[in-house]
From TrEMBL:
InterPro entries: Fe-S_Maturation_MIP18, FSCA_dom_sf, MIP18-like
Protein name: Metal-sulfur cluster biosynthetic enzyme
Lineage, top ranks: Bacteria, Bacillati, Actinomycetota, Actinomycetes, Micrococcales
MIP18 family-like domain sequence ranges: 21-84
Amino acid sequence: MSSMTGTAPDASAHAARPLGEIEEALKDVIDPELGVNIVDLGLLYGLRFSDDSVLDIDLTLTTPACPLTEILEAQIDEALKDLVENHIITWVWTPPWGPERITDDGRDQMRALGFNI
């Protein structure tokens, strides 16, 4: 399943965006079930610009049966609206997500929310 969305007000706005800046913006995308951003949860598997300047985003979920893809896609659209002209989200399942992918910051956020991790 993939989604192509997003238009920046200035079409050239995406031209020289470093991937680190985009990854930082994606920290505003919060997993609705766990309350932690998708980057620190380790759900972001890859970011790259294709030859036609479209941002390709490889994402996974904590479980393939998760019904929240539309919510995450809407949050991603909002987080990237001023950074890239177009993006495509590709949902990937290999390798499967596991808690070992959570960053130290993500673990701190989860502990602050009451998770024992």
